[in-house]
Amino acid sequence: MKMITCIAPINMAVIKYWGKRDEELILPINDSISASLSTDVMCAKTTIVTSALLKENKFWLNGQEQSFDSPRLTNCLRAIKKRADEKLPHLHWNISICSENNFPTAAGLASSAAGYACLVYALAQLYNIEGEISNIARQGSGSACRSIYGGWVRWHKGNSPVGEDSLAKQIVPADHWPEMRLLVLVVNDTKKKYSSAKGMAITTLTSSLIKYRANEIVPRRIEAMEQAILNKNFQSFAELTMKDSNSMHACCLDSFPPIAYMNEVSHSIIQLVHLYNDYKKELTVAYTVDAGPNTCIYLLESEVEDFLSIVNFVFPNNVDDNEYYRGLKL
Ligand code: 2P0
C-alpha cells in the first residue's frame, strides 16, 4: 500500500482568466496573474491511497462520494500516468482519493483551483513525477495551474494547440511583498446562475468586447502588472487590479444573454473603495471580483484596520460577519 497527503493554496486573480480557446484542454484566451494565499488559514487537502487490494477507483470530496468518471479528473490522471515509469508496480493499482477544503463554500472562493492543484500534486508525488505539472493541473480546472505555486504567479496562455506550453510560472514568492493582505468580503446572495465555465463559454461565443480584452487590453496590462509586483508599486498594482476586474465584468455584461455576477452590495463596496481612496488621496485599497458577488480587497497590512472599520460601519448587515472577513496573508 502507498499513501500520500498534500495541501494546496487557493488563489485570487488580479488579471483575470476569462474565456477559453479550447474547452476540453482548458486553454485560455489570455494570460492571467494571481496571488496564492497562505495555506495556514485556507487550503485544500488531498490524501491518495493505492493498494493492489483496492477493487475499484474511488473519489470523495468533502466527505461525499463523487463519480470517478468526470472527464476533468480522468484527463488529469491520464496525463500524470503518461509521465510515470511503466515499471512502477503501483502505477497499475486502483486508487482512492479523499479531498477536503478547510474553508466554507460560503466564502465563495474558487475551491476547484486549490482542489485540482492539490490532486495533481499528490498524484505526481505518488508516481514519482518530477518537473512541470501545472499544465496537468490546468486540465482539472484552468485556475488550478496557478495554485501549484506560492506567491505571485502568472499563467502563460501558450500557443500550442495541445497546450503543453499553457502553464504557470512563479513571478516572485510571497515574501517578496510581505505586507500584502487580502480581505474577502462575503456578500449575501443566492446561488449564482452561471458557473465560471458556463459564463466564460457564453462570453467567448457572444461578446465582441472579449476579443478586444484578450487581444489588446490584457497583453499590455499583464506586463504592467508584472512590473508593479516586481517593484512593489501599490499605486500601479491597485489601478490595474481594479480596471481588470471591471473589464472582466464588462465582458460578462456584454455577453448575450448578459451575465451579472455582481449585486448591489458588490457595487456599493466598489464605490466605497473609490471614496476611501479619494479620501486618502492615493490608491490604498483595490477591489477585485470573481464569478460571484463576493468582493475581495487587496491592501497593505497597515490599511486593514482602518478599511475594515469603515466597511463595518457602512455595511453592518449586508456583509457576512464570519472569520474570512479579515486580512488574509499571502
Ligand atoms: C480567475 N476565474 O482568473 C477567473 C476570474 C473566475 C473569475 O478562473 O472552467 O474554475 O475550471 O477552467 O478555473 C474560475 O474559473 O474555470 C476562474 P475552469 P475556473 O481566477
UniProtKB/TrEMBL annotation:
Record-annotated Mvd1 C-terminal domain positions: 183-330
Database matches in SUPFAM superfamilies: GHMP Kinase, C-terminal domain (SSF55060), Ribosomal protein S5 domain 2-like (SSF54211)
Pathway: Steroid biosynthesis; cholesterol biosynthesis
Ranges for domain Diphosphomevalonate decarboxylase-like N-terminal: 8-168
E.C. designation(s): 4.1.1.33
Keywords: ATP-binding, Cholesterol biosynthesis, Cholesterol metabolism, Lipid biosynthesis, Lipid metabolism, Lyase, Nucleotide-binding, Steroid biosynthesis, Steroid metabolism, Sterol biosynthesis, Sterol metabolism
GO cellular component: cytosol
Reactions catalysed: (R)-5-diphosphomevalonate + ATP = isopentenyl diphosphate + ADP + phosphate + CO2
PANTHER family, sorted: DIPHOSPHOMEVALONATE DECARBOXYLASE
Protein family membership: Belongs to the diphosphomevalonate decarboxylase family.
Descriptive protein name: Diphosphomevalonate decarboxylase
Organism: Ceutorhynchus assimilis
